[in-house]
Specification:
The chain is 40% helix and 17% strand. The protein has helices at residues 25-36, 68-74, 92-105, 116-120, 122-127, 140-151, 197-203, 232-235, 245-258, 275-288, 307-316, 330-335, 342-354, 372-388, 405-412, 420-425, 444-465, 469-479, 485-500; strands at residues 2-7, 10-13, 40-45, 54-57, 61-64, 81-85, 110-114, 133-135, 163-166, 172-174, 214-217, 220-221, 241-242, 263-266, 293-300, 318-326, 358-365, 392-397. It is of the alpha/beta class and 506 residues long.
Length: 506
């Protein structure tokens, strides 16, 4: 039985600050699981199969990758299951359009959706599209059970855990959630051979900064924290599970041999939770005599990163980490359930920078109820991080993502209307022109100004303290290899300008 998995092309605003083209690690894991069970799997990577192509899209955006018609045309005629990944919710309108086009050409295929958006808004995902089934949360076991049942002509959705489907009367039915996987080493490695990886590798695309041929890795799943702005508790639950270090290093060695990878980007939500695990990982890299660089581009927790761990991280090849304190205001941190100490963040930054690592930090403004006084507290914290040696800062505007506690609260209060304008507003994380405030104390325009002022404070302080940094940044961009996110952002801006003049643009 043939199965086709699809990663849709992505829509990015013309004024986007950053645009990271990353291989679809979630679908690659699903493909690996299905193929390991003997299924004939095709994976269409709408982005990776046309990395240098974009076309104008409504609402001052561009569609990067294959056109939607091209994706549909590449689906094998005999596909019985067609799986569509719906990642971030701002991509949902495009994904929804693609599902409709697929249904028109494949009226008898089983259409299955999965990913963050479907998990966060399961009923809406089915009501707004022709999807037959939505997979909730971790997907490998669920899609495998669906495929095996359909192959044996015994598919009864009511018997499958962790899905949403249409019942006999047309109503939406959600089955009990499937328990999380406890042994990640039993999951087959991602089927990267089904994806045009060379394009990503040769162009330096990935989640982290461009440090050479970079492969994605997932060392753990889940996050033990319950931040109110994050959808993790619904998608992955709060149980953090790590892979065995030996299995992970064997995967790294394989990618070094097969793909000539020199750098590895960890796509984990929170890779460093237990000090014992990260120490073992670093020490075994040395024991095996492996040489590579690696990065933690997601928001890393700082609790386990002291001077000892920072030293081990750098010796093992870790060169970039992102910290996500989100706020410097104790009252905001308490409201959003961000269980950190700002002093410990500063100490961790000093330790990591002192060992030679490049540190990016993330702050968020515009939380519901956030006051000018609390923003001033964050400004002071921003200056402290710059003085401590952090290299980069991103200031995001709070966006109420589906599946998060704050989203549910705002929706219940009638402060969110779910429509395409709402989905578009979620792009404000990387496009300041779409900044929308959810705090009664700031207008959209004021929140936008606060973001810019915070960046000026950070980089002004950082570059006055370390005046060589801006010149190093320009030199690295010229050379084509990056050490920081600011360098990657500048390189992306220059690349988009080149694409604007490319005759292949449609």
């Amino acid at each position: 039985m043939q199965i086709c998995l699809i990663r849709p092309s992505i829509v990015i605003p013309a004024n986007n600050i950053t645009s990271m083209f990353t291989p679809p690690v979630g679908l690659a894991y699903v493909a690996g699981t299905l193929r390991d069970a003997g299924f004939d799997v095709r994976l269409i990577d709408g982005v990776g199969e046309a990395l240098d192509v974009r076309q104008a899209w409504p609402n001052d955006c561009f569609l990067y990758g294959l056109g939607l018609e091209e994706i549909v045309a590449r689906i094998p005629a005999g596909a019985r299951i067609i799986g569509i990944s719906a990642g971030f919710s701002f991509e949902w309108p495009t994904c929804r359009q693609l599902v409709g086009m697929i249904r028109q050409r494949f009226p008898d295929a089983l259409l299955v959706g999965g990913g963050e958006h479907v998990t966060a808004m399961p009923a809406e995902s089915l009501m707004e599209t022709d999807l037959d089934i939505g997979v909730l949360g971790e997907g490998e076991e669920t899609i495998l059970e669906i495929a095996e049942a359909l192959r044996d002509d015994a598919l009864d959705p009511a018997d499958v855990m962790g899905i949403v489907y249409r019942g006999d009367g047309g109503g939406i039915v959600e089955t009990p959630r499937r328990p999380r996987r406890r042994d990640l080493d039993d999951i087959p490695w991602p089927a990267w051979d089904l994806i045009p990886m060379e394009g990503y590798l040769s162009k330096g695309y990935g989640f982290g900064v461009n440090r050479g041929r970079s492969m994605p890795l997932i060392a753990s799943r889940g996050c033990p924290y319950q931040c109110t702005f994050c959808s993790n508790p619904g998608m992955w639950t709060t149980r953090w599970v790590a892979r065995g270090v030996d299995d992970l290093l064997s995967e790294i060695e394989y990618y070094q041999r097969i793909y000539r990878a020199t750098n590895f980007d960890f796509y984990d939500l929170t890779a460093i939770v237990k000090k014992k695990w990260i120490v073992e990982f670093c020490e075994k890299i040395a024991e095996r005599g492996l040489k590579f660089t690696w990065q933690l581009p997601s928001g890393t927790r700082t609790e386990a990163i002291d001077a000892e761990v920072a030293r081990l991280l750098h010796r093992s090849g870790c060169r970039n980490m992102s910290y996500s304190p989100e706020s410097g205001s104790p009252s905001v941190l308490e409201r959003i359930k961000k269980k950190i100490s700002t002093d410990s963040v500063i100490a961790s930054i000093r330790s990591a920078v002192g060992e030679g690592m490049n540190i990016k930090t993330n702050i968020m403004f515009g939380f519901p109820g956030e006051t000018p006084r609390e923003v001033l507290q964050s400004y002071r914290f921003i200056v402290r991080m710059a003085l401590a040696g952090a290299h980069d800062l991103s200031i995001w505007a709070f966006s109420p993502y589906p599946g998060s506690e704050l989203f549910d609260r705002l929706r219940a209060d009638g402060r969110i209307v779910i429509d395409d304008a709402y989905y578009d507003s979620l792009r404000s994380y990387a496009d300041t022109s779409r900044t929308r405030s959810h705090s009664a104390h700031f207008s959209d325009r004021q929140l936008k100004a606060l973001r810019y002022l915070g960046l000026m404070l950070f980089y002004g302080t950082s570059w006055l303290r370390r005046p060589r940094r801006p010149f190093t940044m320009l030199l690295n961009v010229y050379r084509g290899t990056h050490q920081s996110r600011a360098e990657m952002g500048l390189a992306n801006l220059l690349r988009r300008r080149r694409m604007a003049a490319d005759p292949r643009e449609t």
